[in-house]
């Protein structure tokens, strides 16, 4: 199959490279000529394990190429995926669909022969209807079918998620479109990946509902963590106890500083706006957003409490800046409100992250940065673990204690055990677990 992928961001680049690896011929398109030139040189604009090798392999094979021209990419394409950004619209929280609609208009001008136009971007209910209307308005003779095929990729594990998906959701009632998408995803039939065919608007809502439900699980266990901490109970035991129930499941039941990233914050806000447009109150989603925002701000107070309540003039070392490990994504990362809160209290911050330093410097230009965890901890009054990078799971605590001014650790990801830390001579605080029995 010949595929055009409009957008070379996280979803577009991963999807395009994986489709090419299946044996399809893929052209990834982006208006940003600098990004396309970098990709043609073999430079990957995002940090995703394995993506660089996957792109290089398929470029060498001739199955993957990059272009700034939609018309060139659409030449004889069987399908074109729209994988552009849908950020929160400034001021009201709605998904900004300007990039989606701009792509639709360009596709309308360039499309030749029967082509399936597929929205892979996360878009509100009814966006596919508008994409189809725009294309037919610009080009009434276009022979197209518009489908929805939302992505369910986790940053840091995107390639595996693409090749071994829990499910593939295809939203279209057009039989020709179903056949094309079935052929595109046929290589996954060996993995017995379930393909769910549904209406287009249903597929659009499935994506938002899935992300909102996962965000709700995170927020729920974070609130239980607050109760557990006050009651002298270990929330990890509680999470295990409820997660063993297969109706609940253990995933996304890890207490921490709140969710961030490119999906959950913007998608929960957008879902709330979609519901308001349909005169429906989503009270649970509304509460999830509020609780999560408050939680991220509260983490600074947790650090201050570990230092006796006063941190003005203290140096705080922060390990982990990205919203999760194995990515360089700083969007809505819990580290940002934490660091802003600590600096507002008068603390001096030094930070380190294995992959997110360049992104972090743009978000947090006023703080200091270090080349590794130990340089970050030098002369610190407290060390805060914010992102659970594997590099932080086996730290040399004797060395850390020598580097730090005070042996205080605030573990916001519950990587370590209190008993072990206290045996090593540290004051240790974590999330949802008693400080002392």
Written overview of the protein:
It is a single chain. With 437 residues, this protein is an alpha/beta fold. It folds into 2 domains: 2-197, Rossmann fold; 227-429, 3-Layer(aba) Sandwich (Rossmann fold). The protein contains 17 helices and 14 strands. It has helices at residues 10-22, 33-40, 51-61, 70-73, 98-110, 127-138, 158-163, 175-185, 200-231, 235-243, 264-277, 283-306, 335-344, 357-363, 373-377, 397-403, 418-423; strands spanning 2-6, 25-29, 64-67, 79-82, 115-119, 144-148, 168-171, 195-198, 315-319, 348-352, 368-369, 382-385, 408-411, 427-429. The strands form 3 sheets. The chain has a 6-stranded parallel beta sheet, with helices on both faces. Strands 11-10-9-12-13-14 form a 6-stranded parallel beta sheet. The protein has a two-stranded parallel sheet with strand order 7-8. Helix 5 (98-110) packs parallel to helix 6 (127-138), helix 9 crosses helix 11 (264-277) and helix 11 (264-277) packs antiparallel against helix 12 (283-306). It is elongated. The termini are far apart. The model has no long low-confidence stretch (mean pLDDT 96).
